[in-house]
Structures are given as structure tokens and as C-alpha cells.
Amino acid sequence: MNDLTKTQKSRVRKWTKALRSGEYKQCKGVLKRRQPAGHNTYCCLGVAIEVCGTQKEKKELLSFRPGMRGRMDSNSASMPATSQARLGLTFGLAGTLMNLNDTQKKSFKFIADYIEDQML
């Protein structure tokens, strides 16, 4: 378990609440994908940026693929290092969450439970 600040814990709770809300539809392979019908889909890490990120990070979020070099820091499990720090999320845990979402295809509810178990 991480030694998170009170603010980081609050952000993690906001993130897990968003994952369980049903408001965000899940996708894999990108942090956020714009769908033709106008409904966006998200990786679990994309939801974190959407609810806890800066305006700049949210703007840069659209369809950034894991492993891409570009505006977002691809060395941080495809999530900007600033976003990870804001949440107290380690590089290793970010990679695990990406795996749970993209490879194991776990639900957002499962991932939210896992985040709380590991971080709070």
C-alpha cells in the first residue's frame, strides 16, 4: 500500500467512484477513444485522467495509444507522469492496471476494487 497524501486519497476515491458509476464505457488499447455516435470510451487510466487530470492532460487524452511516443509520456504506462504523481500511482501499478483493462479485460468495477485494495 502506498503512503498517499489526503489529497491523493481523495482523488483515488473520485477515480474509483467514476469507474463504478456506469458513466464511462470501457475500451482497450487507448486511454480514450471517440466513437462515431459521439460517446467516448476509456481505459481505466483514461478515466483517471478524465476525472483527476489537468485541462491540458484531458485535451491530449484523445486516442493516445499505449507505447506511442508523443505528447503523453509513454514511459509511464501511457499515462503522464504528472497524472500518476497526482494520484500517487506507481509505474508498476499503472502497468498492472493497463494489463487488467487491456489484456485480462476485467470490468471497471473489478479494477476499482483492485485500485482500492492496492492504494487505500
Description:
With 120 residues, the protein is mainly alpha-helical. It has one domain (18-111). It is built from six helices and three strands; from the N terminus they run H-E-E-E-H-H-H-H-H. It has helices at residues 6-20, 44-52, 55-60, 81-87, 91-102, 108-119; strands at residues 25-26, 32-34, 40-42. A three-stranded mixed β-sheet has the order 1-3-2. Strand 2 and strand 3 form a beta hairpin. Residues 66-77 have low confidence and may be disordered.
Structural key phrases:
single chain; 120 residues; mainly alpha; three-stranded mixed beta sheet; 51% helix
**What's the domain count?**
1
Query: How many strands, what sense, and barrel or not for the largest sheet?
Result: 3 strands, mixed
Q: What coarse outline follows from CA principal-axis ratios? A: globular
Task: Kindly estimate the percentage of residues that lie in beta strands according to DSSP.
Answer: 5-15%
- Please give the oligomerization state of what you see: single chain
Note the run of SSEs as H and E.
Answer: HEEEHHHHH
What is the helical fraction, as a range of percent?
40-55%
Indicate the structural class. mainly alpha
Strand-helix topology:
Elements: H1 6-20, E1 25-26, E2 32-34, E3 40-42, H2 44-52, H3 55-60, H4 81-87, H5 91-102, H6 108-119
Parallel strand pairs: 1-3
Antiparallel strand pairs: 2-3
Write a brief caption for the model.
The protein is mainly alpha-helical. It has one domain (18-111).
